[in-house]
Amino acid sequence: MTAEQFLSYFSPERFIKDLRARSKDGVLSEMSKVLAEDDDVRDPGLLLEMIRRRESLGSTGLGDGIAVPHGRSTAATQTKVVFARSKRGIDFAAMDGKPCRIFFLIVAPYEDNRHEYLPLLGKIVETASREDIRKKFMDVGSHEEFQEVVRGAIGE
Amino acid sequence: MSDRVQMLVALQDLELMIREAEDPTSKETEEALGFTMQGIEKLQMDCEQLRKKIPKPDLRLYDRIRRRYHRVVVPVVSRICTGCFQGLPTSRTRTIPTSRPLPTCESCGRILYWL
User: Fold this and answer.
1) What is the architecture of the domain spanning B3-114?
2) Which of A35, A82, A156, B24 has its CA 20 to 30 A from that of A71?
3) Interface predicted TM-score of the whole assembly (ipTM), two decimals
4) Tens digits of per-residue pLDDT, A117-133?
């Protein structure tokens, strides 16, 4: 997956510089609402229900301050990602018990005809697993700066 | 959108999540990425509880279509059923009186869900 292919799932509207939420459920709710403003995803209640249920399978807080809530829903017609950051950090029941500061919410359609969901999930985890990239994600102030970090990381 | 259709969409999403959690390939892929998928019993209980809340005629229709297609409820995008990609008549609207049967595609029979 090239940097541009990766970035096609993100948008300035789905960039949250600093989350207002202070709890895990608040983060899921705030990010789902942003996603539901998109033309391809319209039902925040259904999305939130699906994402909460996925969390009941096991927290998507991977450790090292990263969480990647994700799932597939009939309420989505395109695969979309929301990037969000919390400077104060949020208890997300992560595997290492540490607060999460960088969040990627991925929602894909029920039918993943283009087989993009799992490769995208893998690329996000791979990119965010790098300590140098995580530090840069914590410093980005806009979607454009986020794009530059991704181009630097994936283009290398 | 009708709460009746919303409940069926939630059921369909939940059944998909359970299938993926039970599917060895999906489970292995997610676990290799560092995610855990261990609360499947909770999802199965949620599924049973949700089924009890759905009106019986709607659930019967859902299960009947389910025997034919694994995707029962499909979004309508630009007046097209995304199950069979046939256009819908202009008389079709998203408003569903509570006493009426659920809207289905005249071509494939799937339940329609207006985004």
Assistant:
1) Orthogonal Bundle (1.10)
2) A156
3) 0.85
4) 999 999 999 999 999 99
